[in-house]
Design goal:
Two copies of one chain form a homodimer. By secondary structure, the first copy, chain A, is of the alpha+beta class. Chain A has 13 helices and ten strands. A five-stranded antiparallel beta sheet of chain A has the order 7-3-10-9-8. Chain A has a three-stranded antiparallel beta sheet with strand order 4-5-6. In chain A, strands 1-2 form a two-stranded antiparallel sheet. The structure holds a DNA duplex (30 and 30 nucleotides).
Amino acid sequence: MKLSDRKKKILQLVIDDYISTAQPVSSKSITEKYMNDISSATVRSELAGLEELGFLIQPHTSSGRIPSVEAYKLYVNELMERGKLTGKEIGAIKNAFKERTENLEEVVSFAVKVISDLTDYTSLGFAAHSGKEKIVKIDIFRYRKNVALLLIVTENTLIKDKYIDIPNEMTDDQIKEASNLLSDLFVGKNFSEILTIGEKALEEFKNYREIFEGVMDAIEDYIDNKNNDIIMEGENKILHHPEYSDAEKVKNFLSVVTSKDRLIDLLSEDNDNIEVSIKIGGDEGEEGLSDCSLVTATYTASGVNIGTYGVIGPRRMDYQKVVSVLEGVGRILEDLLDNK
Amino acid sequence: MKLSDRKKKILQLVIDDYISTAQPVSSKSITEKYMNDISSATVRSELAGLEELGFLIQPHTSSGRIPSVEAYKLYVNELMERGKLTGKEIGAIKNAFKERTENLEEVVSFAVKVISDLTDYTSLGFAAHSGKEKIVKIDIFRYRKNVALLLIVTENTLIKDKYIDIPNEMTDDQIKEASNLLSDLFVGKNFSEILTIGEKALEEFKNYREIFEGVMDAIEDYIDNKNNDIIMEGENKILHHPEYSDAEKVKNFLSVVTSKDRLIDLLSEDNDNIEVSIKIGGDEGEEGLSDCSLVTATYTASGVNIGTYGVIGPRRMDYQKVVSVLEGVGRILEDLLDNK
DNA sequence: AGTTAGCAATCGAGCAAAAAGAGTGCTAAC
DNA sequence: GTTAGCACTCTTTTTGCTCGATTGCTAACT
């Protein structure tokens, strides 16, 4: 299936036009707006060809054409022109990160916010849990009679807290000793390391088994439990787009967006490549993404994964803009953090 | 304006019916469904009377009637029958709090979740910031070269963290000393106390001014900044209700729900009384609540305010159910926490 | 062989008129 | 005070019609 240059050009025009107007595109509008050199009849026969190839769909005989899922895929891979951010947009991004943001949670939330603002779509992101984060501080102290509180602070200023039941007979001094032991053993190590040295540590901790298990639980919990860290912004921006003028569709979209498990899966896929990945939900395609598209990017700074970010919206999404924004935010963010 | 018993009865029936069907209620449906002993003509004249009194509205001549804002107010105050939770519902609530939930944030989020699940409306809640929470632990340690991290843990397991710039020449021992000083001075005190003893403390802290100011900032920030702690669940449950079948209305509702500032104000009003408070948004009434109703309750356990919770939804809300759920959750929650 | 103009055919959008249905208010009788 | 009956009002649904947009096809043109 080889497309002539002119077919490609026309397909691109159709998609661009459809993305900006949300209306089926007619042969006439193409010649008038973009291609004064050929007649609409010619365009018509090209359109018919593109339809035959499965790139265009005609909602009904007397209407223009809209792009198929295939067409979008081709578009994002080959046809789409890469956009550049305006100075204003770059300013907005930089501004969003002006405040101190060493805390990873905050970085994520600022990034998600600015992405949503600039693209006018629902955006989401979550901090990757690499298990490679080093522990900076670990502390245990009595909180109630039989309950101690465990605090773990990491490089990224994730602070994890957890209650641990302690036996009646345990004295404050013993708790203190356990706490010191923990610091000696674990500070400077990352989560994965700790899990692997578990056996050996258990030996040293035999007097403080409850506490040791509590710590291990907290760490496992952290690595498994991605759920709490997904952040979303502009859920209702979807209402700004005309294809969602019907409440039934909004419902559908929101149900996609609300099932965080599914989203986390989607965001987690191929999060190795820094490049922008685009998933287009067909009628069948990516399950759980019915009629939606998801554009994601994973950022790293100084070799550390600083989260996966994405935009979710109608299939008729302004990919060009979304991609530029994601790339722009990534670039600025990475610069910013590297120069720290 | 005195209503006869029969008028009251009929008004109640109209509201009940309208709440469950979302359709204007006709005289005929009243006699058929609820009052077989009198004829529809009689009901009609009563309805006409209630309309004259401002309790009912006729969208157009040939339709049934719907309740006015006044009617809802009367309904929630006098007419509505108080519901009881079913065993199943009570089970669901207890189940939601089965896990350990001494952490206030968690209590709030579980409560909000269960309220939304049981009522099928958007629910929200936030932990009150009383300033009366005692500090359990306060700690400072070096985090980067010129940055220390301040951790404050309170009774309610609120953990507050904040970066503090520290001068180059400061040694780890000095940081340690400052940290100890802080513990001695502040542990066991509540936030308000600390703010009032500020002057005196400043004296003792003259060598660690940056740190002292950082602590004070963190505390002030905590007391002022309620924003971050509002939790919402089921924003899109609104779509389950037929009056929001139009995207424009959904947009409107979501914009109400998204302006957290306004919501915090609403939730904060009269949060002294434990009773359930119902605000019905008229066309003019409670600003920011256009066409919505908000039912809120504030819970306390052992005399400590444990948060304000609410349900926001269409004016045609199932007040009976919402009130029972809010009361039920409150009762169970208070029991649970008192018996700890 | 590719391009174009011309034209009939198709189908949705929009509109008005007609029909159907729901509910009321009023009147007169009970 | 209550009720049956009925004319009246207004919405909703249906129907039919026109208009306009757009296409696909054919025949002519370059």
